[in-house]
Amino acid sequence: MNRETSLALLQQHRLLAILRGDFQDNAVPIARELFEAGIRVLEFSTVSAAWAENIRALTQAFGDRLAVGAGTVLHVDHVRQAADAGASFVVSPNTNPAVITATHNFDMASFPGALTPTEILLALESGADAVKLFPAAVFGPSYVRALRGPFPSLRLIPTGGVHAGNLREYFQNGAWAVAIGSELVRGDESSSSTWPELRSRAAKLVELAGGRA
C-alpha cells in the first residue's frame, strides 16, 4: 500500500488504532479482531517488541485491506526500517523535518506530532500529510476548534486521551481523524479470552467515528 491509499482509508474511516506493547505472536490475530470490527488503519509503535517484524507480518496478512504504519518514529533509520517492513505511513510524537522528507521519499504518508501553533506550522511547512495533535488531552476537543481558526484546512489527528466518551466531540470540533491506543488495545490482549471484548470496543469506536467497513 502507498501513501495515497493509506490517506484515503484514514480519511474515509477516521479512526487509527494504535498497538503498543509486547504482543508476542498475537499481532495478526489481534489485528484480525480489529479488522472484523471495522478498523482499517493500524499503527504499530516502534517501542513495541519486534515492531518491524510485526509490521511485515501484518502487511503480508492483510495486503491493501488494512493500512499499517509505524508509530513513535523518531529517526530516519526508523523510517527506512518501516519502509522495508511494508508500512504505508509514519507517525511521530514530534516534528522532525528529516523524518518527514524520508517518509515521503519512501512513498509513505507522514503524521508528525505537534501541539502548539508554532509546532503545527513547522509540521505543515515540512510537508506533513496530517498533524498528530499530541498530547490532545492537555487542552481537549475545544482546542481543535481554536486551531482551525488560523489553520482552516488543517488535518488534525488528536492522540492521547481520546476515548468513546469524547470521540464525537473531537469530530464536532473539527478533527480530521483520531488515534486511540490503550483505550482500545490494552496491555493484556495476549490472551484470546479478551478478544471478543476487544472486538466489541473496536466496533463501538468505529460506529462513533462513522466509519464504514
Main attributes of the structure:
213 residues; alpha/beta; TIM Barrel; 6-stranded parallel β-sheet; 3-stranded parallel β-sheet; 43% helix; 15% strand; globular
Structure description:
The chain has 213 residues and is of the alpha/beta class. It has a single domain (3-209), classed as Alpha-Beta Barrel (TIM Barrel). The chain is built from 9 helices and 9 strands. It has helices spanning 3-13, 27-37, 51-62, 76-85, 97-105, 117-125, 141-148, 167-172, 195-209; strands spanning 15-19, 41-45, 67-71, 89-91, 109-111, 113-114, 131-133, 156-158, 178-180. A 6-stranded parallel beta sheet has the order 5-4-3-2-1-9. Strands 6-7-8 form a 3-stranded parallel beta sheet, with helices on one face. Helix 2 crosses helix 9 (195-209) and helix 3 packs parallel to helix 4. The longest helix has 15 residues, at 195-209. The protein is globular and about 45 Å long. It starts with a helix and ends with a helix.
CATH superfamily: Aldolase class I
Outline the biggest β-sheet. Answer: 6 strands, parallel
Termini gap: 18 Å
Mean pLDDT over the residues: 94
Number of domains: 1
Helix content: 40-55%
Query: From N to C, what is the helix and strand string?
Result: HEHEHEHEHEEHEHEHEH
The fold-level CATH name is TIM Barrel
Basic shape: globular
Kindly name the structural category. Answer: alpha/beta
List the helices and strands and how they pair.
Blueprint: H1 3-13, E1 15-19, H2 27-37, E2 41-45, H3 51-62, E3 67-71, H4 76-85, E4 89-91, H5 97-105, E5 109-111, E6 113-114, H6 117-125, E7 131-133, H7 141-148, E8 156-158, H8 167-172, E9 178-180, H9 195-209
Parallel strand pairs: 1-2, 1-9, 2-3, 3-4, 4-5, 6-7, 7-8
Helix pairs in contact: 2-9, 3-4, 4-5
